[in-house]
Amino acid sequence: MAIMLQEMIVFVEDLRFVRIRCAHCNTTLVLDLKGAFAPTKARGSFVPKHCPMCGEPYDGAVQPCVESLHGIYQELLKLEKGITFTGEPESTGAAARPDASGAAKG
Ligand SMILES: [Zn+2]
After folding, report:
1. Is residue 9 part of a domain?
2. What is the reported pTM?
3. Is 12 part of any domain?
4. For residue 26, what pLDDT is reported?
5. What residue numbers bound the domain in which 64 lies?
6. Total of domains in the chain
7. 45 CA distance to ligand 1 centroid (A)?
8. Which of 39, 51, 74, 88 makes a 20 to 30 Å CA pair with 66?
């Protein structure tokens, strides 16, 4: 029996933009990971500490995580197409997915 698998391959350069949503006003800030700095007055950091719309601070984990991501992204870009990302392979057959069997209803 053959099972067909679909695999989505994502290149590093395709993961270029990161979106940060403000928990207070729901404004979404889009940062370009290819860029050196976010459009903010706070030079020296890629990610602003505060929402540019309402001024509330982002979650304290956002800035260090996205700063790290930015640094790693810049390094991965140097490898060009040598590294790609994939998600879980998706089967086209329902039998390969236990949650698709219909047994767990309710
Ligand atoms: Zn906000």
Report:
1. no
2. 0.67
3. no
4. 97
5. 20-83
6. 1
7. 18
8. 88
